[in-house]
Write a structure and sequence with these properties.
The structure holds two protein chains of two kinds.
Chain A: E1 3-7, E2 10-13, E3 23-26, H1 32-37, H2 40-47, E4 57-67, E5 69-77, E6 84-85, E7 97-106, H3 107-111, H4 114-124, H5 140-149, H6 151-156, H7 162-165, H8 184-191, E8 203-212, H9 215-221, E9 227-234, H10 237-257, E10 270-271, H11 275-310, E11 318-326, E12 328-337, E13 340-349, E14 352-353, E15 372-375, E16 383-387, H12 390-395, E17 399-400, H13 410-417, H14 422-428, E18 432-435, H15 440-443, H16 452-462, E19 466-478
Chain B: E1 2-3, E2 10-15, E3 20-26, H1 29-44, E4 54-61, H2 65-83, E5 85-95, E6 99-108, E7 122-123, E8 129-133, E9 136-144
Antiparallel strand pairs in B: 1-2, 2-3, 3-9, 4-6, 5-6, 7-9, 8-9
Classes of the chains: A alpha+beta, B alpha+beta.
Chain lengths: 479, 145
């Protein structure tokens, strides 16, 4: 596969064969060999073959081999040019995303009680495979309300405040949810899982702001060095997986019906505007809203845990929402194409929206600096806060990277970590970790991931996001 | 390589960067489907931990044998996630190109005895393979973790 250098951190796979547009890869020179060893570049090429794709099949520096779309892939489709929506371009965990909370606490205030905080968090936020809440049993009618209203449903039930909603992508509700397009099976899978973390790479992490790179932006986001923050990484749980699974069956049929040739079955899709596409987008929005409500519920649990452990009155610790981003989603968005504005279906599969300063969808408090972008790293090193830029708006449909990206497969990581006292290794570095799953800690060792600092440096240098602050873990719970 | 516990078919996990894949070989198509189910639950929990106490009948249909494989495994995963069930033994009663009937033997999840190994969330269609090979059958499945 030929790759031409197009910029400091930008590479192009020229259009050839069945590709309708070129592939564009954001990566440093040093990252290229490992990308070539992976199947992710072929996946960039496969996405470039889908009908109605606009401008390019784009990959972020955290790209790795997914299924269908690469993880770290961005693609926009034009409904007026036969453009499609593909459940494989969103993934199973619909609206998997990240939420950042900023506290009024300094790291010195929590250091001594960190073991208690992590233990209490582990107790209060259910985690692990198939984790469920015994204290929150919803009727099917109530689950449909969650799908309809998103994070606002949780706030209406006393989990958080209206101010939280102003600091969530899309206000915590993707428009156009269709709860009737969500199967009984999906509702059943999701019912007991609202307010739970899940397993795999999902986590809740207590952090401190370790370094600020951009004072003005950090001030706007309410972040300063030494401050305690909390990051949540989770999604739509079993409900989202079932919506995706149901949709893939429909879309395989639809692809055959509409005569769409698929380089990979997982890229099955339907033309935007078709009944299948309308149904999927309605079900996807419903699942995305479930994920927003899920993170909202966990936010309330985190606040209560801090107040209990530190013996503070409600509201005293802060933990207000800085922002909440989706990184597995397809959205209808307005973008400039060839000098005119077009409504496009932008797929972000392991990629984060990164809208520039002064965009109407950016919360008023952040309008001068840009939309916050939350990039988690691994549990042993650091995570980053960035803001969206004009460059992202121009070049990547307002998108940037989403995380570190794996360097090792899960089994390779587990082999390397076998027999090692991972909990003690991390404790020696000042990080207290609790995990539900036997294998999770082994599969999630820090060295299994690329250095997220390198990923973030690439998007910063390429101008598709700007670094604001670095967060360092103090306590982590994993599924 | 892992035996499918009735000795005929076998499966091997292979590395996929973020997720988990298995390659399966078997002398017959029904055995390939059976061993794929064994591989799924062995990765998730380890078969020895699960008592095959109760039988759960499973029937699925699909447009072709590759999609049938995904539907079969996705059905088992659904029963696991929605009804908290674990399985360790599988019997294939009828397997054709587009339909399948089988029985999964298992028990409800019990936190006192069961500890999950890897949380498999979905069965993907990516690089799915079910094909005749050297007088037998060969399959490949990638799971979302």
């Amino acid at each position: 596969m030929q790759m031409k250098k197009r910029g400091d951190c930008l590479w192009e796979i020229a259009r050839e064969g069945r590709m309708r547009v070129p592939g564009l890869i954001y990566a440093s020179e040093e990252m290229l060999p490992s990308l070539r060893d992976d199947q992710c570049l072929q996946q960039v090429v496969n996405v470039a073959q889908l009908p109605g794709i606009v401008r390019a099949s784009i990959a972020m520096p955290d790209i790795h081999w997914g299924y269908g779309f690469p993880i770290g892939g961005v693609a926009a489709f034009d409904p007026d040019d036969g453009g499609v929506v593909s459940p494989g371009g969103v993934g199973y965990d619909i609206n998997c995303g990240v939420r950042l909370l900023r506290s009024r606490l300094r790291q010195e205030e929590v250091r001594a009680v960190m073991p208690d905080l992590v233990a209490a968090l582990f107790r209060n936020v259910p985690s692990g495979v198939g984790s469920s809440r015994k204290d929150l049993r919803l009727s099917m009618g109530e689950v449909k309300q969650v799908l309809e209203k998103g994070a606002a449903w949780a706030v209406s039930r006393g989990f958080g405040s209206a101010a939280d909603l102003d600091h969530i992508e899309a206000g915590g509700r993707i428009p156009g949810p269709d709860p009737e397009a969500v199967s009984a099976r999906a509702l059943e899978r999701g019912r007991a899982q609202l307010g739970t973390l899940g397993s795999g790479n999902h986590f809740a992490e207590i952090q401190r702001v370790d370094e600020v790179f951009d004072d003005a932006a950090a001030r706007a986001l309410g972040l300063d060095e030494g401050q305690v923050t909390v990051t949540l990484h989770s999604g739509s749980r079993g409900l989202g997986y079932q919506v995706c699974d149901d949709s893939l069956q429909e879309m395989l049929e639809a692809s055959r019906r509409y005569g769409i040739e698929l380089p990979d079955r997982q890229l099955c899709c339907a033309p935007l505007g078709s009944p299948e596409a309308v149904r999927y987008l309605g079900a996807m929005a419903a699942a995305a809203n479930f994920a927003f409500a899920n993170r909202q519920l966990m936010t309330a649990m985190v606040r209560r845990t801090f107040e209990e452990v530190l013996g503070r009155p409600p509201g005293d610790v802060g933990l207000s929402v800085v922002y909440d981003v989706c990184h597995n989603i397809a959205k209808m968005e307005r973008h400039q194409v060839g000098g005119s504005e077009k409504l496009l279906c932008v797929h972000r599969k392991g990629a984060t929206r990164a809208y520039p300063p002064h965009h109407p969808e950016t919360p008023a408090a952040y309008r001068s600096v840009g939309q916050p972008v939350l990039i988690p790293g691994d549990m042993g090193r650091y995570s980053f806060v960035l803001v969206g830029t004009e460059g992202a708006w121009q070049d990547t449909f307002g998108s940037t990277c989403h995380g570190a990206g794996r360097r090792m497969s899960r089994s390779a990581a587990a082999r390397q970590a076998k027999g090692r006292p991972i909990v003690r290794e991390l404790a020696d570095r000042g990080i207290i970790v609790r995990s539900e799953g036997r294998m999770t800690l082994l599969e999630e060792i820090p060295e299994a991931y690329k250095d997220v600092a390198e990923v973030v440096d690439v998007v910063h240098r390429a101008g598709i996001a700007r670094k604001v602050a670095r967060l360092v873990p103090m306590g982590v719970i994993k599924g | 390589m892992n035996s499918g516990n009735q000795t005929d078919g076998s499966w091997t996990p292979f590395d996929h960067t973020a997720d988990l894949g298995v390659d399966i070989t078997a002398p017959t198509l029904p055995e390939l489907f059976r061993v794929a189910a064994v591989a799924l639950f062995d990765q998730m929990i380890g078969l020895e931990a699960v008592v095959p106490a109760r039988a759960f009948p499973v029937s699925v249909t699909a447009a072709n044998r590759e999609e049938l494989m995904v539907r079969w495994l996705a059905e088992l995963l659904y029963l696991h996630d929605a009804q908290d069930l674990l399985f360790s033994r599988f019997e294939m009663e009828h397997v054709e190109e587009t339909s399948l009937r089988g029985v999964a033997w298992g028990e409800p999840f019990d936190a006192a005895r069961h500890q999950m190994k890897t949380g498999i969330k979905a069965v993907t269609y990516h690089q799915i393979e079910v094909r005749p090979d050297a007088g037998g059958w060969r399959g490949r499945v990638i799971f979302d973790v």
